[in-house]
Amino acid sequence: MDPKNRSSFTGFILLGFSDRPQLERVLFVVLLVFYLLTLLGNTTIIALSRLDPHLHTPMYFFLSNLSFLDLCYTTSTVPQLLVHLRGADKSISFGGCVTQLFVSLGLGITECILLGMMAFDRYAAVCRPLHYTVIMHPRLCALMASVSWFIGFANSSMETVLIFLVPLCGRNKIEHFFCEVPPLLKLACVDTTVYESEILFFSMIFLFIPVALITFSYGRIVRAVLRIKSAAGRRKAFGTCGSHLTVVSLFYGTAIYAYLQPSNNESQDQGKFVSLFYTIVTPMANPFIYTLRNKEVAGAVRKVFCWGYDSR
User: Fold this and answer.
1) Cβ-based neighbours of 255, under 8 Å, separated by 6 or more
2) Which of 191, 281, 282, 285 has its CA 20 to 30 A from that of 108?
């Protein structure tokens, strides 16, 4: 944003679902329930991963990172959305919008890279089981997680600066429920082709790593599983990867659709609901996807609760 715009600019109006007051009341109840489930599910995963020694493995180390990331991601957008759904004031300050964009972008890219790291972990578990503990050493796991967070917020810093360099000429009504890249660029009063190209360039660079890791890992996993003669062995091998593939499909599918949709009123409404999906539904579903039929987690829950009960 240029100095003239910045000097007289106070904030934005998040239009969200304000044209559908009846829908807002329903959404408030649904999103509040989903948000509470998100807090409960992801906090449980983090707590169990720390409390139960049997879950001190690379898989649950990355899963606890993912759960913490999902907690931060939903908290960066949903509480404010709930306030806006229950009140007439839909405003957000300029600084608040910058912070929200920076945090949500950083966490989004971090999740992309973290899912790639988790795919590599599954590759090592299935294709190199005898060397798994050597390959996925705790120091390497910590380094991989740190790299994910660093790259995510490094990319976010560049994209946030680029977006707020775009002249808005006093436009402040965002056709969305939080500060996100596509609706912010639509406020511009100049041609944004250059800005969009630069943002796409940086995004492609940082997204290439996780996509390459996921493709490589599952390509090798499929080849390894197909060589297993036992049907039960194949089911077990695919079972260790099914949860991760489901999460990858949900996250990448909705995010790609949200960012590549055409610019028209109908697609804007669809984009809001798709954004709702990956900001609240996916983070809520992740813990349940990973723990469904998971005997290790079920055993950890029994141990923690029985220990708490016995300690009384």
Assistant:
1) 108, 278
2) 191
Distance CA 161, CA 1 (A): 9
Q: Answer whether 214's CB lies under 8 Å from 116's CB.
A: yes
d(CA 182, CA 252): 17
pLDDT, position 210: 83
Nearest alpha carbon to residue 148 among 39, 43, 61: 61
pLDDT tens digits, one per residue of 201-229: 777 777 777 888 888 888 888 888 888 77
Identify the three-state secondary structure at position 261: coil
Identify the DSSP state of 259: H
Is the distance from CB of 68 to CB of 288 less than 8 angstroms?
no
Q: Judging by DSSP bridges, how do beta strands 11-14 and 91-93 pair with one another?
A: antiparallel
139-158 mean pLDDT = 92
Decide if 271 contacts 261 (C-beta within 8 A): yes
- For 258, half-sphere exposure in the C-beta direction (CA atoms, 13 angstrom radius) is 21
Q: Cβ distance 192 to 263 under 8 Å?
A: no
Which tokens is 50 given? Answer: 């720390």
Residues 108 and 152: beta-carbon distance below 8 Å? yes
Cβ count near 206 (within 10 Å): 19
- Which of 210, 211, 174, 169 lies closest to 190, judged by CA? 169
Name residues whose C-beta falls within 8 Å of residue 106's C-beta, 6 or more positions apart in sequence: 152, 153, 155, 156, 157
Q: Say if CB 91 and CB 12 are below 8 A apart.
A: yes
Which runs of consecutive H residues, i.e. helices, occur in 90-230?
94-127, 132-135, 138-163, 181-185, 193-226
- Per-residue tokens: 279: 């900001």
Instruction: Specify burial of residue 309 (Cβ count, 10 A radius: 0-12, 13-18, 19+).
Output: exposed
Residue 248 has pLDDT above 50, yes or no: yes
